[in-house]
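Quick question, first post here. What does this chain look like in 3D?
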Amino acid sequence: MIAAVAAFSLMDGLLKVLTARYPLLQVAVLRGATSLPFTVLPLLIAGRLRDLRPRRWRMHLLRGALYVITLVAFIYALRLLSLANAYAVFLSAPLIVAALSVPLLKERIDWRHWLAILVGLAGVLTMLRPTTAGLASLGVLAAFVGACAYALSAIAVRVLTRTDTTVSVVFWTIGLMTLLAAAIAAPGWVPIEPAHWKLLLALGLLAAIGQYLLTEAFRSAPPSIVAPFEYTSLLWAIGIVIASGLYLIWRERMRAAPTSAQLSWKWTAEKGRMSRRSLTVEAAARKQEEDSP
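> Answer (accepted):
Ran it through. Tokens below.
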């Protein structure tokens, strides 16, 4: 689950970039369509396409619909809210998952578990410091709807993995989500810019990896145990911000290095005007002066 959250955190950064250029549902379609090849290709190479066979069509369809709601709601929230406020609301999902696990999965959760989830949520709010004014908006409602849809999707994964393979759950969830979103997004489709294909390739790879790991996590343990590890997204987000800053510093240094290493501009008076001479020219002139009698 920690690795899945790391992949999704990187993916969120790409989604933020794409939503500035494309409609919300189209981004959801692109996110799904680009990840499907990475899901199917390993099975095709291994000759295990039979693992994709679904056993619970209705549950797959339900999870596909929930995934559309989760993606669109969260992307919409990112448009209206700061990252801090959007995450502060969306990260209530682990608490919702734990609450729904009791009536829907008949799980028993003791008070220590509830306390741990609440402490984790309190820690998230302390780190994010959401503003009160920012929490009274449609963006907050969208983030909460997304959190509820995510929680129900997590419950559905737990049920599906009792009978279906992990790749089957991943493939049909993403596939159905993509079809549902595409049917709605088709009228307002915007042509893809050539410069964005690299981003879409990375988006698809991260989405496929994250979805596979997420499904495997919910297969391995009860949702109320797995879901609180969503809180680690804050750590990955901090790491991404630090890495981005270091990369920008490195790029600036690399860009400035040739100039500072090869040229040292010095203004000298020559024939009534100022001229610039490089280190190479200065060294040659100095050597000529020393050799002359």
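The chain has twelve helices and two strands.
Residues 263-291 form one domain.
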